[in-house]
Specification:
- The complex is a heterodimer.
- By secondary structure, chain A is mainly β.
- Chain A is about 0% helix and about 55% strand.
- Chain A starts with a strand and ends with a strand.
- Chain B has strands spanning about 5, 10-15, 20-25, 30-35, 45-50, 55, 65-70, 75-80, 85-95, 105, 110.
- Chain B is globular, with a radius of gyration of 13 Å.
- In chain B, strands 2, 4, 5, 6, 9, 10 and 11 form a seven-stranded mixed sheet that branches. A four-stranded antiparallel sheet of chain B has the order 1-3-8-7, with no helix packed on it.
- Chain B is built from no helices and eleven strands.
- Chain B starts with a strand and ends with a strand.
- The chains are: A mainly beta, B mainly beta.
- The interface of A and B includes residues 31, 96, 98 and 105 of A.
Chain lengths: ~110, ~110
């Protein structure tokens, strides 16, 4: 069953601006992950945040997690045209081994 | 070096045919997965294999059968293909223990005529 819902569905910004994407989920989690998918390619893992963490950074990426609101956000600072891709949040699927439940994704377009 | 590779990249075939998609990972991971991504980019887990044992099987028709000859390979065989099977199929792998990132192949785009 689908667990995550990203918001917005699509986002268009100019190079240098920041991009913020949000994700909401329904049930309790062990961790939440963000992935990027370039057109015609597989998903690439960006960052994993555990349920007992509130914020995590990786380069130009900043992820927050609010388990009380069952939500997470991904901030990409100083965006580049190469950041153009779809971004997905994923949570561990219950009773499914280590499989992930993915949201519908946010399509990000960064224009020069 | 490609970490998770799947073949073929494109597969065009007719309804009713049987086809297979192969997946191999060279990361030494213990768990492999098959996901299906529909035309709206929604990704759904189909199967998960851990040390050659099926540990989940979502509500996937039994026309789909995963086969794992060893822990580095997880192939997907599909019988009697239907129009609704058209999608992109992704293989992925992860180390055991949960809380681990998954590594994805580049997908196999299956088109049913």
């Amino acid at each position: 069953s689908q667990q995550g819902e990203e918001d917005p569905q699509a986002l268009s910004i100019q190079e240098g601006e920041n991009a913020t994407m949000n994700c909401s989920y329904k049930t309790s989690i062990n961790n939440l992950q963000w992935y990027r998918q370039n057109s015609g390619r597989g998903l690439v893992h960006l960052i994993l945040i555990r349920s007992n963490e509130r914020e995590k950074h990786s380069g130009r990426l900043r992820v927050t997690l609010d388990t009380s609101k069952k939500s997470s956000s991904l901030l990409i600072t100083a965006s580049r045209a190469a950041d153009t891709a779809s971004y997905f949040c994923a949570t561990d699927a219950q009773n499914s081994g280590y499989a992930l439940n993915f949201g519908k994704g946010t399509s990000l377009l960064v224009t020069p | 070096d490609t970490a998770v590779s799947q073949t073929p990249k494109y597969l065009v075939t007719q309804m009713g045919n049987d086809k297979s998609i192969k997946c191999e990972q060279n990361l030494g991971h213990d768990t492999m997965y098959w996901y299906k991504q529909d035309s709206k980019k929604f990704l759904k887990i189909m199967f998960s294999y851990n040390n050659k044992e099926l540990i989940i099987n979502e509500t996937v028709p039994n026309r789909f059968s995963p086969k794992s000859p060893d822990k580095a390979h997880l192939n997907l065989h599909i019988n009697s293909l239907e129009l609704g099977d058209s999608a992109v199929y992704f293989c992925a792998s992860s180390q055991d223990g949960g809380n681990q990132p998954q590594h994805f192949g580049d997908g196999t785009r299956l088109s049913i005529l």
